[in-house]
Amino acid sequence: MTINKQSFWDRETKTALWRIVLEYQGKRDQALKKNQLEMEGFREEVHQMKKQALDQIDQLRKQAIANLEANGIRVFEAKDDNQARKIIEKLLKDKKRVIKAKTNAFGEIDQKGFLADKQVQETDLGDFVVSLVGDPEAHPVLPALHLSPEKIAQAIEKKYRKRILPTAEGIAEFARNYLREKINRAQAGITGANAITADGKIVILENEGNISLVSRWPESHIVVAGFEKIVPSLKEALMVVQASAIWGTGQDWPAYVSVIASPSKTADIANETIIGAQGAKEVNLVLLDNGRGRLIEAGFSELLHCLNCGACLNFCPVYHQIGSHYGGKYLGSRGVVFAAFSQSLKKAKLANCFACTLCSACLENCPAKIDLPELMRKLRTLLEKEGWQTKENEKMIANIRKFGNPFGKIEEGQIPKELYCC
Amino acid sequence: MSILDKILGGNTLYYPGCLTKFVAKDLEEKYQEILRQEGIDFITLSELELCCGSPALKAGYLADFKKAAKENMKIFKDHGVTKVITNCPACFMILKKYYQEALGKDWNIEVEHISQTLGSKLKAQNSKLQPKVKNLKLTYHDPCHLGRQMGVYDQPRTVIKNLGYRISEMKLNKKNSFCCGGGGGVQSNEPDLASKIAQDRIKQAKETGARILCTACPLCYLHLKENAKGIKVKELSQLFSLNKGKNDHQ
To answer: Domain B130-239, what architecture?
Structure first.
């Protein structure tokens, strides 16, 4: 395996990334202080909370579905990405104009050509910008971190024939005006979820306010989420919110937290309940398995503790070189492991499973204490079993088997160039 | 077990690990000399011992790793080994953590990284280690397997300070240390990637203004040295100016 030369980030992007990451680190530590949380203690609490939820996930899932449906939220379980796409297509059958707010779960099931007959508009500023430029997301929380305001302003001018100030403010203003128009006319809105409670509530956090609009303004709201988002109650869900804000963006609390318990309704006239007042008339939840069941069976359930905050990437040496080329539908080591179960072992190898140095920086920075290096190592054992080794590793193991060391027979005065070790 | 072993409570094995033994050979000689100077009795098994199994385990060859663990344990026990000292953080982590996991109770051999051995001697004030420079600035790179994975941060620093050096820390240090890029099989599987990561780490080291970058791992040492420009990379043992050897950093 060799990583393509074009996959490496240029010096400018790398410098920008380091500046963002080091600033983030300071903000994260401040946010913990502001919440009067001690880092290690809180990480352990999040870890235990997610572990306990996953240990009883089948039961929580049944409860969540029953309670959501009792509240008027329709739940569709999707075995795989194909099924999820079919469900969404059906839900959008009579709808043409669709708006979307940051959802990585949607990215998980998305495919070229999916919803091609609709006008789908991304409303998260970062995602709006990367889709405009035509780049993949560079980070789950900061998708456009690799793009300078100048480059974005140029792309806007080229596509919309509108000259704007090449500043963050100028771009945000353009996007606000442009997207408001789209939101206003949309018939359906797609979002993700940060947590779903067994008692039937969907919890979504955000800063921009676009999720509030996408989930409320159009007639139909579609939520796409993996079943691992289910936790027992709002208490646990708010812990997810807090951890996601602190580790995701270094904030003590996000600007908005939506708790959606039913479609919009009113009983103001003659005490008669009408579904659909100012908010969404229908709320649909597409609950994804897409490899999660297999993942649990194979002993990798710790991966599902993930809150998708992206903190595992921030100090990852591989991510700092090749960005979105490390991982699959999700970025980084987490994405590599997930690809093995949601797609295939071959995909996991192509997602650069053998590029991980097992340095543990991801584990150190994970709010849920997911032992990603250990999962990565276990994944390599699966790859080995199924014949997805690298040539270099095959040489190394042949040497160990024959000579008791990874370098093989070493002639006097010779120094091996390939350091298989460690 | 020989009578002598029984009296002394078993042998201490100095286990350099493959990388030190076959590639960074000068480090092995240095460490043996340092251990002798510190009055630590040890044996070596040179051709008899096998690779600890670290590269096998990390590349996904679980059965080969377990085999290596079993065979090494037998070799060690046959030679009355009750304690292993190694200068390789990967071997240290494997022997201490993963042998315990793979072999269970049978693995009752104590394992130390050599920085711990030397650090304890200093703490007990029975070290013969002498400062050879005066307040010379250097920066220290925490090897991932020694630091983040095994929690050994302070002892290498204690040793360095007692050799007369002043440590100017990088922004990313201790549990926030940044990998050298060589581990996990990446140096051989993805050499370009490994080099780029090392060059970033070198840049971070140079930002401290230090002229020397020291580490306590043969892989980090070899890999960083290969990618270093404008800074000298030293392995911990090379900071020692031994009675016999010449003074390296002068």
So the answer is: 3-Layer(aba) Sandwich (3.40)
Handedness of CA A22, A24, A28, A29 (dihedral sign): positive
Q: Find residues 107-146 of chain B whose CB sits inside 8 Å of chain A.
A: 144-145
Q: What is the ipTM of this complex?
A: 0.94
Q: Closest Cα of chain A to B131: distance in Å?
A: 31
- The two three-digit tokens of residue B190, written as one number: 């993805």
Distance, in Å, from the CA atom of B42 to the CA atom of A272, rounded to the nearest integer, reads 88
Q: Is the pTM of this model over 0.80?
A: yes
**CA end-to-end distance (rounded Å), chain A:** 19
CATH of the domain spanning B3-119, picked from 3.40.50.1970, 3.40.50.970, 3.40.30.10, 3.40.50.1860: 3.40.50.1860
Query: Among the three residues A249, A275, A290, which one is the final residue of a domain in this structure?
Result: A290
Interface of B with A in 2-31 (CB under 8 A): 17-19, 21-23
* Residues of chain A found within 8 Å of residue B18, distances taken between Cβ atoms: 405-407, 421
From first to last of its 422 residues, what are the pLDDT tens digits of chain A? 679 899 999 999 999 999 999 999 999 999 999 999 999 999 999 999 999 999 999 999 999 999 999 999 999 999 999 999 999 999 999 999 999 998 999 999 999 999 999 999 999 999 999 988 888 888 888 899 889 999 999 999 999 999 999 999 999 999 999 999 999 999 999 999 999 999 999 999 999 999 999 999 999 999 999 999 999 999 999 999 999 999 999 999 999 999 999 999 999 999 999 999 999 999 999 999 999 999 999 999 999 999 999 999 999 999 999 999 999 999 999 999 999 999 999 999 999 999 999 999 999 999 999 999 999 999 999 999 999 999 999 999 999 999 999 999 887 778 787 788 77
Q: Do A405 and B18 make contact, defined as CB atoms within 8 angstroms?
A: yes
- Please state the domain extents for chain B: 3-119, 130-239
The answer to whether B199 and A14 are in contact (CB under 8 A) is: no
According to DSSP, residue A357 is labeled -
Q: Which residue of chain B is at minimal alpha-carbon distance from A358?
A: B184
| Nearest CA-CA distance, residue A46 and chain B, Å | 20
Contact A317 B62 (CB under 8 A): no
| Residue A209 belongs to some domain of the structure | yes
Q: Which of A330, A43, A38, A10 is nearest to A147 (CA)?
A: A10
